[in-house]
Amino acid sequence: MAGILVYAEHKEGKLKRVSYELLCKGREIASQKGEGLWAVIIGNGIGDAVEELSSSADKVFVFEDPSLEPYNSDRYIQLLAGLIEREKPSLVLAGATIQGRDLFPSLAGVLGKGVVVDCLSIELQDGKFVYRKPFYGGKVLGEVSLKEEPEIVLVRPRAFQIVDQPKVQGTVIREKVEIDEDRVKVKTLKIEKPEGKVLDITEADVVVCGGRGLKSPDNFKLLEELAEVLGGAVGATRAVVDAGWRPQSEQVGKSGKTVSPNLYFAIGLSGAVHHVMGMDSSKVIVAINRDPMAPIFQYADYGIVADLFEIVPLLIEELKKGRGS
Q1: Is 247 helix (H, G, I), strand (E, B) or coil?
Q2: 94 beta partners
Q3: With b meaning 16 or more CB within 10 Å and e meaning fewer, what string describes 162-189?
Q4: What local confidence, expressed as pLDDT, does residue 197 receive?
Q5: d(CA 21, CA 120)
Q6: What is the reported pTM?
Q7: At what angle do helices 220-230 and 308-322 cross, to 10 degrees?
Q8: From 18, 58, 129, 153, which residue has the greatest number of CB atoms within 10 Å?
């Protein structure tokens, strides 16, 4: 029996939120098609993640070896290509994350199959999958379908809800890690991690993003305080990152990260199309800008035309009052 294969992305052995989202959607699709739900995970030291997956998926394919950490696209492609050619899933789901965007278009090329990137919804119509995704920088939404299986689809994080699922006792299949080491040589010199506990903007329910309107890097303390009150993360535009005000890990946009939080604050930024491409699927967008003609207001659910240095402190104060702190 064919299956729906979910690529379970993780960070240091902890499953990312998008993996849970895809497992929920994958189960829904598998039930509609009368197929099984499968998952594949690659890495080292991933025992806890495998255990979680086995309670959600009917089969869990595990590639675990020290050579698979840190992430290496060439090695991952070899393993995934062999698995997909052998098991022949009808659909492969992965997150449209930095890793997913790097890995799966190349994998599709190796397999000679099509790929859908930035999928926002999946519908089964007359036995055929139809995918909705943005085009032209999010200006329009279109529906596409693929001709051949397996259909490879990268889903934008937070496009699907995480819902309670009945627990299963999935079969864990530990795969042999066989890699052609001569294809690529990678030497990891150093891995730098941010100090303290930093919430990844792609995982955050709330993102507070700032642009050049903050005027200096020191003024981002305002956004840090607002994000802390809301339990969110700070984001930044490309101009801010290029100026060295904020780290690249916080960059939102086409050349940065794609975020889809429940609440997105766009503060002191104009709303250039390349930035909007990274946040236009946010559930609620609040824009604060002095310029009433700023493009960001075209995308905002709520807009405040005012000086951010007056509004943000008032907003922080009121939120703290509301939380009794």
Answers
A1: coil
A2: 154
A3: eeeeeeeebeeeebebebeeeeeeeeee
A4: 64
A5: 12
A6: 0.86
A7: 20
A8: 18
